[in-house]
Design a protein that fits this description.
By secondary structure, the chain is mainly alpha-helical. It has one domain. It has 3 helices and 3 strands; from the N terminus they run αααβββ. The protein has a 3-stranded antiparallel sheet, with helices on one face. The longest helix is centred in the N-terminal third of the chain and has 52 residues. It starts with a helix and ends in a 13-residue tail after the last strand.
Protein backbone atom coordinates (compact mmCIF):
# COMPACT_ATOMS: atom_id res chain seq x y z
CA UNK A 1 0.00 0.00 0.00
CA UNK A 2 1.40 3.35 -1.02
CA UNK A 3 1.60 6.35 1.27
CA UNK A 4 -1.04 8.09 -0.87
CA UNK A 5 -3.52 5.24 -0.34
CA UNK A 6 -2.82 5.20 3.39
CA UNK A 7 -3.46 8.95 3.63
CA UNK A 8 -6.73 8.59 1.74
CA UNK A 9 -7.93 5.95 4.25
CA UNK A 10 -6.94 7.80 7.41
CA UNK A 11 -8.04 11.29 6.46
CA UNK A 12 -11.83 10.59 6.63
CA UNK A 13 -11.33 8.97 10.03
CA UNK A 14 -9.40 11.98 11.27
CA UNK A 15 -12.12 14.28 9.97
CA UNK A 16 -14.80 12.27 11.83
CA UNK A 17 -12.79 12.21 15.06
CA UNK A 18 -12.19 15.93 15.00
CA UNK A 19 -15.87 16.83 14.49
CA UNK A 20 -17.73 17.91 17.71
CA UNK A 21 -21.01 19.47 18.84
CA UNK A 22 -21.41 23.20 18.48
CA UNK A 23 -22.66 25.37 21.34
CA UNK A 24 -25.99 25.86 19.55
CA UNK A 25 -26.49 22.11 19.22
CA UNK A 26 -25.79 21.59 22.92
CA UNK A 27 -28.20 24.37 23.88
CA UNK A 28 -30.92 22.82 21.72
CA UNK A 29 -30.43 19.41 23.36
CA UNK A 30 -30.53 20.95 26.85
CA UNK A 31 -33.69 22.87 25.97
CA UNK A 32 -35.41 19.72 24.69
CA UNK A 33 -34.48 17.80 27.86
CA UNK A 34 -35.81 20.68 29.98
CA UNK A 35 -39.13 20.72 28.10
CA UNK A 36 -39.53 16.95 28.47
CA UNK A 37 -38.73 17.16 32.19
CA UNK A 38 -41.23 20.01 32.67
CA UNK A 39 -43.93 17.81 31.13
CA UNK A 40 -42.98 14.50 32.73
CA UNK A 41 -42.26 15.52 36.34
CA UNK A 42 -45.68 17.12 37.10
CA UNK A 43 -47.46 14.19 35.46
CA UNK A 44 -45.41 11.78 37.56
CA UNK A 45 -46.16 13.70 40.76
CA UNK A 46 -49.87 13.87 39.94
CA UNK A 47 -49.92 10.13 39.27
CA UNK A 48 -48.36 9.52 42.70
CA UNK A 49 -50.98 11.70 44.40
CA UNK A 50 -53.82 9.93 42.58
CA UNK A 51 -52.37 6.57 43.64
CA UNK A 52 -52.27 7.72 47.28
CA UNK A 53 -55.86 8.96 47.08
CA UNK A 54 -56.99 5.60 45.71
CA UNK A 55 -55.06 3.82 48.44
CA UNK A 56 -56.65 5.99 51.16
CA UNK A 57 -60.14 5.15 49.89
CA UNK A 58 -59.33 1.43 49.72
CA UNK A 59 -57.69 1.42 53.16
CA UNK A 60 -60.57 3.17 54.88
CA UNK A 61 -63.10 0.89 53.21
CA UNK A 62 -61.21 -2.16 54.53
CA UNK A 63 -60.79 -0.64 58.01
CA UNK A 64 -64.46 0.31 58.18
CA UNK A 65 -65.41 -3.28 57.38
CA UNK A 66 -63.06 -4.50 60.13
CA UNK A 67 -64.56 -2.07 62.66
CA UNK A 68 -68.11 -3.17 61.84
CA UNK A 69 -67.14 -6.82 62.18
CA UNK A 70 -65.45 -6.01 65.50
CA UNK A 71 -68.64 -4.31 66.70
CA UNK A 72 -70.77 -7.25 65.66
CA UNK A 73 -68.62 -9.90 67.33
CA UNK A 74 -67.42 -7.98 70.42
CA UNK A 75 -70.46 -5.77 71.00
CA UNK A 76 -68.26 -2.71 71.51
CA UNK A 77 -66.42 -0.04 69.53
CA UNK A 78 -62.80 1.06 69.38
CA UNK A 79 -62.20 4.17 71.48
CA UNK A 80 -61.48 7.43 69.70
CA UNK A 81 -59.37 10.09 71.38
CA UNK A 82 -62.38 12.31 72.12
CA UNK A 83 -63.87 9.68 74.43
CA UNK A 84 -60.83 7.70 75.60
CA UNK A 85 -60.35 10.04 78.55
CA UNK A 86 -63.78 9.21 79.94
CA UNK A 87 -64.65 7.00 82.89
CA UNK A 88 -65.57 3.95 80.85
CA UNK A 89 -62.47 4.02 78.59
CA UNK A 90 -60.01 2.36 80.97
CA UNK A 91 -62.61 -0.20 82.03
CA UNK A 92 -63.25 -1.08 78.40
CA UNK A 93 -59.52 -1.29 77.73
CA UNK A 94 -59.12 -3.72 80.65
CA UNK A 95 -62.28 -5.86 80.32
CA UNK A 96 -63.14 -5.85 76.61
CA UNK A 97 -59.81 -5.06 74.95
CA UNK A 98 -57.82 -7.19 77.44
CA UNK A 99 -55.19 -4.45 77.73
CA UNK A 100 -54.32 -4.62 74.03
CA UNK A 101 -52.61 -1.43 72.96
CA UNK A 102 -51.63 1.57 75.09
CA UNK A 103 -53.65 2.44 78.17
CA UNK A 104 -56.12 5.31 77.57
CA UNK A 105 -55.99 8.21 77.08
CA UNK A 106 -54.38 7.87 73.67
CA UNK A 107 -51.37 9.84 72.52
CA UNK A 108 -51.20 8.69 68.90
CA UNK A 109 -53.64 8.29 66.04
CA UNK A 110 -52.81 4.56 65.93
CA UNK A 111 -54.27 3.91 69.41
CA UNK A 112 -57.89 3.12 68.38
CA UNK A 113 -56.75 0.38 66.00
CA UNK A 114 -54.73 -1.83 68.38
CA UNK A 115 -57.77 -3.86 69.58
CA UNK A 116 -58.50 -4.69 65.94
CA UNK A 117 -55.16 -6.50 65.61
CA UNK A 118 -55.20 -8.83 68.63
CA UNK A 119 -56.20 -11.40 69.79
CA UNK A 120 -58.38 -11.61 66.65
CA UNK A 121 -56.83 -10.04 63.57
CA UNK A 122 -59.61 -7.93 62.15
CA UNK A 123 -56.70 -5.97 60.68
CA UNK A 124 -53.35 -7.52 59.76
CA UNK A 125 -51.50 -4.42 60.94
CA UNK A 126 -51.89 -0.83 62.03
CA UNK A 127 -53.13 1.29 59.12
CA UNK A 128 -51.03 4.14 57.74
CA UNK A 129 -52.39 7.21 56.03
CA UNK A 130 -50.39 7.67 52.79
CA UNK A 131 -50.56 11.41 53.47
CA UNK A 132 -49.62 11.02 57.15
CA UNK A 133 -46.80 12.99 58.70
CA UNK A 134 -45.07 11.04 61.50
CA UNK A 135 -43.92 13.17 64.41
CA UNK A 136 -46.01 16.20 63.41
CA UNK A 137 -48.75 17.57 65.66
CA UNK A 138 -51.79 17.79 63.39
CA UNK A 139 -53.68 20.23 65.59
CA UNK A 140 -55.25 17.65 67.90
CA UNK A 141 -52.33 17.39 70.34
CA UNK A 142 -51.76 13.96 68.84
CA UNK A 143 -49.28 12.52 66.42
CA UNK A 144 -49.12 9.46 64.24
CA UNK A 145 -49.47 8.05 60.74
CA UNK A 146 -52.89 6.42 61.02
CA UNK A 147 -56.24 7.66 59.76
CA UNK A 148 -58.17 9.87 62.16
CA UNK A 149 -60.97 7.79 63.72
CA UNK A 150 -64.09 9.25 65.30
CA UNK A 151 -67.22 7.45 66.52
CA UNK A 152 -70.59 8.00 68.12
CA UNK A 153 -70.03 5.44 70.84
CA UNK A 154 -73.26 4.12 72.40
CA UNK A 155 -71.56 4.19 75.81
CA UNK A 156 -70.43 7.80 75.43
CA UNK A 157 -72.60 10.83 76.23
CA UNK A 158 -72.67 12.02 72.62
CA UNK A 159 -70.99 12.12 69.26
CA UNK A 160 -67.30 12.93 69.46
CA UNK A 161 -67.10 15.28 66.49
CA UNK A 162 -70.00 17.35 65.22
CA UNK A 163 -70.85 16.41 61.63
CA UNK A 164 -73.66 17.07 59.19
CA UNK A 165 -75.59 14.86 59.15
CA UNK A 166 -74.81 13.65 62.69
CA UNK A 167 -73.46 10.14 63.10
CA UNK A 168 -76.04 7.73 64.47
CA UNK A 169 -75.16 5.78 67.61
CA UNK A 170 -72.69 3.06 66.70
CA UNK A 171 -71.52 4.78 63.51
CA UNK A 172 -67.98 5.96 62.85
CA UNK A 173 -66.00 8.11 60.45
CA UNK A 174 -62.39 8.03 59.31
CA UNK A 175 -60.34 10.76 57.69
CA UNK A 176 -57.09 11.00 55.79
CA UNK A 177 -55.06 14.20 55.94
CA UNK A 178 -55.45 14.45 52.18
CA UNK A 179 -53.01 15.97 49.69
CA UNK A 180 -52.82 19.29 51.58
CA UNK A 181 -51.67 17.33 54.66
CA UNK A 182 -53.66 19.45 57.09
CA UNK A 183 -56.42 18.74 59.59
CA UNK A 184 -58.49 21.86 60.17
CA UNK A 185 -60.22 20.71 63.33
CA UNK A 186 -59.64 23.78 65.47
CA UNK A 187 -62.64 26.10 65.72
CA UNK A 188 -60.73 29.34 65.23
CA UNK A 189 -59.57 28.28 61.78
CA UNK A 190 -61.80 29.53 58.92
CA UNK A 191 -62.51 26.03 57.62
CA UNK A 192 -62.30 22.63 59.25
CA UNK A 193 -63.34 19.06 58.51
CA UNK A 194 -63.71 19.96 54.84
CA UNK A 195 -64.34 17.06 52.44
CA UNK A 196 -61.63 16.75 49.81
CA UNK A 197 -62.84 17.46 46.29
CA UNK A 198 -60.35 16.82 43.43
CA UNK A 199 -62.36 19.11 41.13
CA UNK A 200 -60.93 22.01 43.16
CA UNK A 201 -57.45 20.89 42.17
CA UNK A 202 -55.53 17.70 42.83
CA UNK A 203 -53.72 19.31 45.78
CA UNK A 204 -56.57 21.18 47.40
CA UNK A 205 -57.95 21.81 50.87
CA UNK A 206 -59.87 19.09 52.65
CA UNK A 207 -59.72 15.61 54.12
CA UNK A 208 -60.52 12.33 52.41
CA UNK A 209 -63.41 10.93 54.45
CA UNK A 210 -65.35 7.73 54.85
CA UNK A 211 -68.41 7.35 57.06
CA UNK A 212 -69.69 3.93 58.05
CA UNK A 213 -73.04 4.93 56.54
CA UNK A 214 -71.34 5.74 53.25
CA UNK A 215 -71.77 9.51 53.34
CA UNK A 216 -69.48 12.49 53.85
CA UNK A 217 -69.10 14.69 56.91
CA UNK A 218 -69.37 18.45 57.05
CA UNK A 219 -68.46 20.26 60.23
CA UNK A 220 -71.35 22.62 61.10
CA UNK A 221 -68.80 25.21 62.24
CA UNK A 222 -67.12 25.35 58.83
CA UNK A 223 -67.42 28.61 56.99
CA UNK A 224 -67.75 28.93 53.19
Amino acid sequence: MTKKHADEMTCPLQRIQSKGFTLIELLIVVAIIGILAAIAVPNFMNARIRAKISRAHADMRAISTAIQQFQLERNTMPLDFWTDNSDFAIERWETKFHRVGPMPPATTLEAPYYPLTSPVSYLTGLPKDPFGMPGVDIGLSERGEAYLYCAHDPDAPGQSMATVPPLARGQHIMMSLGPDRYFGLISEWPRRATPYDPTNGLISEGQIMRRSDGGLALDPNSKP
